[in-house]
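Sequence, please.
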């Protein structure tokens, strides 16, 4: 397949690299970012009001979690109209203003594309469910009950319970890999595919700069498992091999004739580096990069709420495996948290005594990997997990469904289940952005849809920016560094001391320039010889005011040297 898409330049030819190799993307979760009208829910006006802040941070693009009309069962990941704006967030005119004002500041706007499923209130699904003979019946996955009136196969939903729900009126089951209000579209039907491509073109023509594609590898299903004689059980990936055809067709229909200035990033649970090379090889024209899940699954047991002990060697080696896997072909995206994950400083760092140090350590480590870093709102000021005392305070349906299933059906101890929710719930990332120390953290003048984290009196944008040790300013410097420095964007990656339990060290090299990262990912001083001699090296960035020099690293101390 031919394409106008630029190829990722080889090390040594930075001039030819696509813009996103030296870019940093900032994820906005609109509900929780800034509320401009006092209804307790963030909105487009709130984002517009904070564009200057984002420009000062220096980010190149904003990825907006879904802002389309939605019954909000899954906070907008259940879309009822693809060509409108959710009234709670604003309207199309205001959206156009947001795009224009972002563009004036050199910031691109990336939309969330949720097309594995729609809302069950989308007109397409309403038609589809209306009768077995409706022309849109085949736009979704309808199947007869198997055997004893059971579901067509044993797939489980990602949000607990079976992935099939019986529609009483027409006597058939529909497939939903997520909540029952999120029926899966049938991408085998070419009309579905064309409808999605046309909608994508509509947004791009309107001025948006790309898409973050929600669980996009799931659009292609293992049809033989759905229609197979033996009910397939849950677990494993539902992804079918035709995924590559679908993505290439999408690229051809939507992106090939455009200028290459857009960004496509596919969220893809369950894929490995071999898959990722295929997805992100520029020559294959599928997507620019993907969000993989291996590194955020390392501390999860049978389900995400069963928390396993964390191991630094396991994390380092996994990320290095992805660096190596996409070194010659393809491209990584880099993230340690987002709207579906706990806060990185609480999960990987120390969010009390060494909050500044560990937040900046992980920032330095992540941004110095090769790939495009994604900053999730609040990460840039070191926001932490929240800890609600009662399950009733949680809003996320994944957490609530899990709790009910574990306690009511499996009879597990409520205290233990709640502890898992407190550690892993998506609501940890979704409490309102902490702008200042006032009652609702400057997020809203009303009552926020999810309580603000009580620690906003100390942790907030105003306080951080006024502090000597500012997480925000550290991110500013990292972002600027990526813009200025081809070795940060494109240099090759080598992990040092992979088995070390506390030291995170690696080099990046491009031509005759080498950078070294050394970091002590622990609460206590680390007194080992550095893996590389730094005599005479330039200290580019550090999170301690006067690095002791020599080899000892303080708790969560991180340094970047140019050798
Ligand atoms: C993705 C989204 C998540 C959503 C799910 C279903 O994983 O990131 O927030 O709940 O897809 O759309």
């Amino acid at each position: 397949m031919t394409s106008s898409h630029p190829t990722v330049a080889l090390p040594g030819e930075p001039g030819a690299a696509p813009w996103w190799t030296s870019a940093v993307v900032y994820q906005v979760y609109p509900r929780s970012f800034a509320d401009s009208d006092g209804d307790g829910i963030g909105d487009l006006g709130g984002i517009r009001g904070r564009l200057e802040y984002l420009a000062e941070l220096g980010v190149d693009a904003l990825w907006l979690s879904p802002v389309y009309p939605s019954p909000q069962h899954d906070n907008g990941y259940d879309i009822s109209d693809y060509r409108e704006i959710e009234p709670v967030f604003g309207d199309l005119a205001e959206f156009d203003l947001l795009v224009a004002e972002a563009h004036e500041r050199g910031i691109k706007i990336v939309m969330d594309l949720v097309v594995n499923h729609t809302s069950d209130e989308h007109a397409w699904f309403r038609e589809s469910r209306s009768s077995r003979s409706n022309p849109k019946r085949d736009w979704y996955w309808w199947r007869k009950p198997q055997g004893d009136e059971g579901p067509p196969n044993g797939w489980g939903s990602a949000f607990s319970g079976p992935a099939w729900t019986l529609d009483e009126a027409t006597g058939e089951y529909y497939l939903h890999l997520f909540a029952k209000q999120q029926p899966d579209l049938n991408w085998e039907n070419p009309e579905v595919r064309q409808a999605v491509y046309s909608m994508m073109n509509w947004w791009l023509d309107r001025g948006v700069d790309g898409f973050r594609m929600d669980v996009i590898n799931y659009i292609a299903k293992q049809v033989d498992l759905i229609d197979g004689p033996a009910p397939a059980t849950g677990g494993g990936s539902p992804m079918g091999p035709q995924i590559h055809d679908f993505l290439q067709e999408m690229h051809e229909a939507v992106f090939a004739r455009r200028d290459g200035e857009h960004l496509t990033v596919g969220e893809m649970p369950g894929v490995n580096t071999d898959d990722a090379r295929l997805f992100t090889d520029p020559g294959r024209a599928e997507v620019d990069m993907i969000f993989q899940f291996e590194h955020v699954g390392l501390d999860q047991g049978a389900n995400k709420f069963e928390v396993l002990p964390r191991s630094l060697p396991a994390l380092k080696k996994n990320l290095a495996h992805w660096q190596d896997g996409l070194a010659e072909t393809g491209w990584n995206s880099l993230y340690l948290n987002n709207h579906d994950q706990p806060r990185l400083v609480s999960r990987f760092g120390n969010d009390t005594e060494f909050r500044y140090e560990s937040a900046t350590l992980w920032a330095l480590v992540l941004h110095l990997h090769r790939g495009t870093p994604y900053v999730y709102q609040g990460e840039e000021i070191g926001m932490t997990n929240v800890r609600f005392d009662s399950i009733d305070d949680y809003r996320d349906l994944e957490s609530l469904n899990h709790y009910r299933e574990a306690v009511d059906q499996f009879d597990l101890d409520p205290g233990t289940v709640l502890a898992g929710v407190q550690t892993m719930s998506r609501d940890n990332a979704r409490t309102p952005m902490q702008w200042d120390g006032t009652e609702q953290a400057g997020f809203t003048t009303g009552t926020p849809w999810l309580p603000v984290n009580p620690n906003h009196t100390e942790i907030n944008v105003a306080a951080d920016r006024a502090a000597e040790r500012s997480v925000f300013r550290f991110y500013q410097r990292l972002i600027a560094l990526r813009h200025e420095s081809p070795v940060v964007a494109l240099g090759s990656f080598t992990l040092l001391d992979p088995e070390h339990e506390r030291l995170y060290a690696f080099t990046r090299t491009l031509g005759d320039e080498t950078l070294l990262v050394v970091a002590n990912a622990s609460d206590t001083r680390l007194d080992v010889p550095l893996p590389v001699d730094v005599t005479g090296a330039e200290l580019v960035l550090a999170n301690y005011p006067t690095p002791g020099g020599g080899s000892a690293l303080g708790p969560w101390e991180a340094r970047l040297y140019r050798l």
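Residues 491-562 form a domain with the Immunoglobulin-like fold (CATH 2.60.40.1180).
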